[in-house]
Design brief:
homodimer; about 290 residues; mainly alpha; Farnesyl Diphosphate Synthase; two-stranded antiparallel sheet; about 0% strand; globular
């Protein structure tokens, strides 16, 4: 029986300790302070956790997996910093504290985001500098860049901006969610698989799993924004409605949205059957995502 | 005898044709249009040219070198898009036409920059997906990310922002220039070397060469901004003075600045002696940088 709470606690601690260790030591303090501020603001560390859980599920006990996991968190944190900018979502609060640009100014927040995105690939290159890791590092860089780039997360953000303030179809909402959130979660699971030496079939299963928990995550996110207070969320609640953003509750109402989350959850679980190994950890993670309250 | 003009013409054409080929085909048009706009606005293509020239100097005739070269241009173009944003240098004109955010808005310009940075590493990963190229790709990703990141180009931009409107020392100007411009030119030369299988001594020479032509380039850039009209430059002239930015002419006057450019040029040439192969092409490039009028 896997103790998911224990796994989360131990791995979050390892991740939090490791994140600062890949910073270039000779970076000017102005920019590294802004990078650290957003990284250390907390957060669930869902993406790096997912990478480590996928690797562990396939039997990896390699300490180097942690570098791959941290690369995922760097990309996620950069995306939050840029999304919060006045030119984008204009959000003053993130993870319960003022967002990066509110503390360091817009210019430094742009640079801190750029630097974290770059650091993600520097960290993957560091991972690949070990003898015998080169091919895995190249595949991880390919997976990550495709997921984070114009046909992935950034593309989703572009579609989301484009959709603001106008009626959009359900298939558009689905596509935005799949790109904005699903792509990076899918890559998080797949990168853990690559690090662990997954077969093609296992990688396919991990991608389907990641993609579906990404969808479930976005649905729950929208629901929490719809139902919660700002204090509970740690970021402005109801912001989606104020900005007329494309969300699931606007389409299905809260009850229909919950059902949708459950259906993605079930799809994620059935993808795991193709892994051909015990996947209690990944199942537990999916459950946590469905049940989360913030 | 090397025909530098012919080399530049042929290679620029190859680069311009290639740049669009690495775009993910399924990216939303909104963001790829903004990416293309800035890429196709022209520019000297100095960084990819430098990569190809370094590789050719060491005897490489590999078509795949072009991918590495394009990655350098993606990073350079992203940095221009973000630098021009209102929150940063607030520049309306770039390469003779309205800058990216003036056409596509600030939000899309931020995303286009992010996407080009990501595309650089996706392209390097594509380069490394060939059998036997994995190790070179990892080393190129390491070189590029270090040069572009918080301890390189982004760090230089952060220092530059920090220095605006106050008196700074010559050593600070030197450091800003070395990071803002020198780091990526150094990486451009080094990445060409890595692609060509350079020895450690040759890589060291290429880095010293690139670093010094980077310094020369920045000095000439400052001088052109000081002396030119907006029409000649294709970007707002005199902008540095208006913003009280740290520049060489403000320190040495125009004549002293020219001498400084020549001294960096001479250092670049002497670094080439350590290459142990004919380096007429790289010498010719350095001369072009010193003599350029825009």
């Amino acid at each position: 029986m896997i103790d998911i709470e224990r796994f989360l606690e131990v791995e979050r601690k390892r991740i939090n300790l490791a994140l600062g260790q890949y910073f270039p030591p000779d970076a000017p303090p102005a920019v590294s302070a802004a990078m650290r501020y957003s990284l250390e603001a907390g957060g669930k560390r869902l993406r790096p956790i997912l990478t480590l859980a996928a690797a562990k599920t396939l039997g990896s006990e390699d300490d180097a997996d942690l570098e791959v996991a941290c690369a995922l968190e760097f990309i996620h944190t950069y995306s939050l910093i840029h999304d919060d900018l006045p030119a984008m979502d204009d959000s003053n609060l993130r993870r319960g504290i003022p967002s990066c640009h509110r503390v360091y100014g817009d210019a430094m927040a742009i640079l801190a985001g750029d630097a974290l995105l770059t650091l993600a690939f520097e960290t993957v290159a560091g991972y690949g500098s070990r003898e015998g890791y080169e091919r895995k590092a190249v595949r991880i860089a390919a997976e990550l860049s495709a997921a984070a780039g114009a046909a992935g997360m950034i593309g989703g953000q572009a579609l989301d901006l484009d959709a603001e303030g106008r009626d959009i179809s359900l298939s558009e909402i689905d596509r935005i969610s799949a790109l904005k959130t699903g792509a990076l979660l899918r890559a998080a699971a797949a990168c853990g698989g690559i690090a662990a030496g997954a077969t093609e079939q296992q990688l396919k299963a991990l991608r389907a799993y990641g993609s579906n928990i990404g969808k479930a995550f976005q649905v729950v996110d929208d629901l929490l924004d719809y139902e919660s207070t700002t204090e509970e969320l740690g970021k402005p609640a109801g912001a989606d409605q104020v900005r007329f953003k494309a969300t699931y509750p606007a389409f299905f109402g809260p009850e229909g949205t919950k059902k949708r989350a459950e259906s993605f959850y079930n799809e994620a679980l059935s993808a795991l059957n193709e892994l051909d190994c015990p996947a209690g950890l990944l199942k537990g993670l999916a459950k946590k995502i469905i049940d989360r309250k913030k």
